[in-house]
Amino acid sequence: MDGQRLRAWRPAVPGIAEVLHARFVTHAYPPHTHDAWTLLVVDDGAIRYDLDRHGHGAVADQVTLLPPDVPHDGRAATPGGFVKRVVYLDADVVGRDLTGAAVDHPALADPLLRRRVTELHRVLDGPGEELQAESRLALVVDRLRGHLGAPAHREPEPRRLARDLRDLLDAHVDTGITLETAAARLGGAHPTHLVRAFTASFGLPPHAYLVGRRVDRARALLLAGQPPAQVAAAAGFYDQAHLTRTFRRYLGTTPAKFARSAARRPAAPDRAG
Q1: Does the entry feature the keyword DNA-binding, yes or no (predicted)?
Q2: Residue 130's CB: how many other CB atoms inside 10 A?
Q3: Dihedral (CA of 84, 90, 95, 98) sign
Q4: Which residues pair with 5 in a beta bridge?
Q5: Distance (Å, rounded) from C-alpha 176 to C-alpha 182?
Q6: Model's pTM, two decimal places?
Q7: How would you class 211 by CB atoms within 10 Å of its CB: exposed for 0-12, middle for 13-18, buried for 19 or more?
Q8: Closest among 12, 253, 247, 221 to 128, alpha carbons compared
Q9: φ/ψ (deg, to 5) at 216
Q10: What is the spatial order of strands in the sheet that 82-90 belongs to?
Q11: What radius of gyration do the chain's Cα atoms show?
Q12: Helices and strands (H and E) in the chain: how many
């Protein structure tokens, strides 16, 4: 296989068609197109590619954005090959109207965008973090659109919007709600504005608020005597392992140990007589 590694999956995140992590040494992509935006970062090595018959390069300190329906190829630019991570975005997530700008300037030298793309990949790498992934995706797309010259969105008053989003999150602690659905219910507000308005008003992003509410619900259910496997589903976690990871991160212990500590509490003193 010449050192080749490849992993691909489709996360349950609106707007993302596929995630691909790969290492190639000698493989060369023939000219082809996608019906999605290709959001690419290189972690090692470098890539040479032609986009619409013009030569370009992708290196580690840049973000590369290739538009849908425009022919491109790809091959290693260094003897050791390359390692890349790709998110394929549905065409309307960035907007087909920005295709021309992306053809002209596919390489984006933006350290903040690079960090945000890496953070997005981190939360896409396992189930249970869909709202966080959607929130991070919204910030990535907003910055991409800014690089491509898209006009800013006109948005409703942020404090009211933040309160309304908090009410939606409180009503969906166990089932969850996507930013896409929340935006539609809140008058078509842009997801990026939802994230920024909520963070400015409450000091943390929507996904972090929701996780905190889920941990609180899990604590209450554990103290009521429910087993961790049942608590995970009732509190909105993907599975028991997801509950355990999150619970340990917030409280420094596992759900089972937390429940046992409650069972060992001293009995109330007998005040009779």
Answers
A1: yes
A2: 20
A3: positive
A4: 23
A5: 10
A6: 0.81
A7: buried
A8: 12
A9: -60, -45
A10: 5-9, 16-24, 82-90, 36-45, 63-66, 107-108
A11: 23
A12: 11, 10
Rounded to an integer, the average pLDDT of 243-248 is 94
Amino acid 154: pLDDT? 62
209-241: pLDDT as tens digits: 999 999 999 999 999 999 999 999 999 999 999
Q: Residue 6: beta bridge partners?
A: 22
Using CA atoms, how far apart are residues 101 and 88, in angstroms rounded to an integer? 18
* Residue in this structure with the two tokens 């329906």, named with its chain if needed: 69
Residue listed under structure tokens 């000219």? 31
Using an 8 Å Cβ cutoff, are 223 and 231 in contact?
no
Query: Does residue 273 surpass a pLDDT of 70?
Result: no
**The token pair that represents 106 in the structure block:** 């596919």
On whether the CB atoms of residues 63 and 89 are closer than 8 A, the answer is: no
Beta strands in 54-127 (DSSP E): 54-58, 63-66, 72-76, 82-90, 107-108
End-to-end CA distance of the chain: 82
Q: Encoding tokens for residue 87?
A: 């998110």
**Residue-by-residue DSSP string for 7-24:** EEE--S-TTEEEEEEEEE
Helix axes 206-223, 191-202, angle to 10 degrees: 60
| Gap between the Cα atoms of 34 and 42, Å rounded | 19
State the sign of the Cα–Cα–Cα–Cα dihedral 240, 244, 246, 250: positive
pLDDT at 263: 61
Average pLDDT over residues 108-135: 94
